[in-house]
Specification:
Transposase_8, 4 helices, Homeodomain-like_sf, DNA binding, 66% helix
Length: 94
């Protein structure tokens, strides 16, 4: 009989907290791993991914990525179209 361990799902906030602790180097990765019951290799992987993506924070001047900009533009367009519909309803007397 083999008992399978369930994989833990960690939130991005939790991963960030662990990575920041690893970057600060107040404790070794092994100590942090024991503290949070996470394998040190996993912490190293998170740290590498975190550091490789860190520069993208500063690429867009406003800090918004393309998806957020597109969403904002679509909301603006929806608002504009809603105003036009309301105006036409008023003009046509509905």
């Amino acid at each position: 009989l083999v008992v399978m361990k369930k994989r833990k799902i960690h939130t991005s906030g939790f991963k960030t907290k662990v990575v920041i602790e690893a970057i600060q180097e107040r404790e070794t990765i092994q100590e942090i791993g024991k503290k949070y019951d996470i394998h040190p290799n996993q912490i190293s992987t998170w740290k590498t991914r975190f550091l490789s993506g860190a520069s993208s924070i500063f690429e867009n001047g406003s800090g918004k990525d393309d998806t957020e900009k597109e969403r904002d533009e679509l909301f603006k367009k929806v608002g504009q179209l809603q105003m036009e519909v309301d105006f036409l309803k008023k003009v046509l007397g509905k």
